[in-house]
Amino acid sequence: MAKTLELEFVTEFGKPARLSVENPKEPIEEAVVKAAMEEMIASGVFTSTNGNFTSVKGARVIDRNVTEYEIV
């Protein structure tokens, strides 16, 4: 089972931008995630093709199950 924490921001042009974190540390605390996202915005380190991050839009965990079948 693979999990990804997807962080969604709004850019200076009003467009969405996402960052993904593979195998996030659990349990995920909403307040900690929001604070970290706000620090990312304040630092100005992250940017996207749609501009600089200006606000937090949301976050979600994507949980994937992969079942492989051997086809002979």
Key traits:
single chain, 72 residues, alpha+beta, 4-stranded antiparallel β-sheet, 19% helix, 46% strand, elongated
- The number of domains: 1
Number of beta strands: 4
Low-pLDDT segments, ≥5 res: none
Give the overall shape: elongated
Helix-strand category: alpha+beta
Q: What is the overall number of helices?
A: 1
Order of helices and strands: EEHEE
Largest sheet, order of strands side by side?
Answer: 2-1-4-3
What percentage of residues falls in helices of 4 or more residues? 10-25%
Q: What is the gyration radius calculated from CA atoms?
A: 15 Å
The average pLDDT value, as a whole number, equals: 94
Beta-strand content bin: over 45%
Task: Report how far the terminal alpha carbons are from each other.
Answer: 25 Å
The major β-sheet equals:
4 strands, antiparallel
What does this structure look like?
With 72 residues, the chain is of the alpha+beta class. It has one domain (2-64). It is 19% helix and 46% strand. The chain is built from 1 helix and 4 strands; from the N terminus they run ββαββ. A 4-stranded antiparallel β-sheet has the order 2-1-4-3, with helices on one face. Strand 1 and strand 2 form a beta hairpin. The relative contact order is 0.34.
